Amino acid sequence: MGLIVQKYGGTSVGSPERIKAVARCVAATRAAGNRVVVVVSAMAGETNRLLQLAGAVAAQPDARETDVLLATGEQVSVALLAMALRDAGVPAVSFLGHQIRIATDSVYGRARIKSIDADNVLHALEDGTVVVVAGFQGVDQGANITTLGRGGSDTSAVAIAAAVKADVCEIYTDVAGVYTTDPRICPNARKLARISYDEMLEMASLGAKVLQIRSVEFAKRYHVPVHVRSSFSDEPGTWVVEEDPSMEEVLVSGVTVDLNEAKITLQRVPDRPGLAAKILSPIANAHIVVDMIIQNASEEGFTDMTFTVPRADYQKALGMVREVAAEIGARGVTSDTSVAKVSVVGLGMRSHAGVAARMFQVLSKEGINIQMISTSEIKVSVVIDAKYAELAVRVLHHALVEHGFEEAAA
Ligand code: ADP
Ligand code: ASP
Ligand code: MG
């Protein structure tokens, strides 16, 4: 008998019909002799609707109350799914995050899971009951409701799978797996049968929202096999698993795009030790994640410093940077929110030179200007004008992924 955690995303529970379809799928998994924990997201569009409501009553909605509000989306889904299951003759019980003690830190809006009371879940499963858990939410030490950041139900599911030592965590979504790039942008995107945790971590952190990055971190740390698949069909999806040697044979396994960053530049900063820390510390203290950072070569003792932050934190970061800029005598601050970060990812890059150069050639042929570059062992990212984002994804996919496949096949 297996123990399976299944997670259904917003589209998969987007209507009463869809919820009934999910109930049938869960019932079949149970009928096959498995114990099943189901984690669900809010119905499609609900989290955005709630955020809009918050914005309609307050210019800057309070962070604690925003989490209380957002957590209601998942509360609706768990209740409806448990009802649908019971109606179909399947014993089921719903739990909110705090009821199974999904303990998190207190960073509202992007809380991190610290522990989960697995005994509670295992106990509820004992007599064959399906346990339906609200994704995306937890509770802090002070009994405040927290949420895990957009897409956080993936993380709830993998964390629960790790806690109860499930055989597999199945992520059911509106595409059939993890593709070489977003299939909604590039019709030639190809479904991957398998992807390593490290490649998936890069893809998730670089904008492939099919899995929230924290969920992949949990999966890697606790060795949870993750199967990303469609809730609309039975076809096998993508396994996110431990790396094996054959995976390095593929040079570029994916192209990603992230439109959720903004760029801030401090002009003519005095080039002195300690200034980068002075500029970035207040931002870090506000829990804002700075991504790419570049500093130009110093000219006459002055330099420009450019970095990117999540667009949601952009106004806050800009305010902080303006304050520091005045303090340290920088000439000014410029910023740009219409930027896109486009990246290519692949384990094979560790041992092959030339991917970055090829990437820059392909972009230049389309007349796309590169504003920033960053690399790691298995990825190259560039920041470009957002209006070229989709074009860049398609031409890079064509040159580096599709062409790569042709070479491999030849
Ligand atoms: P859910 O609501 O089920 O959590 P999401 O919208 O969060 O679903 O994630 C699924 C979406 O991720 C897909 O619809 C697709 O547009 C997008 N996506 C981006 N990059 C990829 C990729 N490389 N492979 C698959 N899907 C991707
Ligand atoms: N409902 C949340 C969101 O829209 C969490 C999730 O769907 O994973 O981000
Ligand atoms: Mg999601």
Which range does the strand content fall in?
A: 25-35%
Number of alpha- plus pi-helical segments: 11
| Distance linking N and C termini | 44 Å
What is the average of the pLDDT values? 94
From the spread of the alpha carbons, the general shape counts as: globular
Instruction: Enumerate the distinct ligands.
Output: adenosine-5'-diphosphate, aspartic acid, magnesium ion
| Helix/strand structural class | alpha/beta
Order of strands, main sheet, comes to 3-6-2-1-9-11-12-10
> What percentage of residues falls in helices of 4 or more residues?
25-40%
Calculate Rg over CA atoms. Answer: 23 Å
Number of strands: 20
The major β-sheet equals: 8 strands, mixed
> Which regions have little confidence, pLDDT < 50, spanning 5+ residues?
405-410
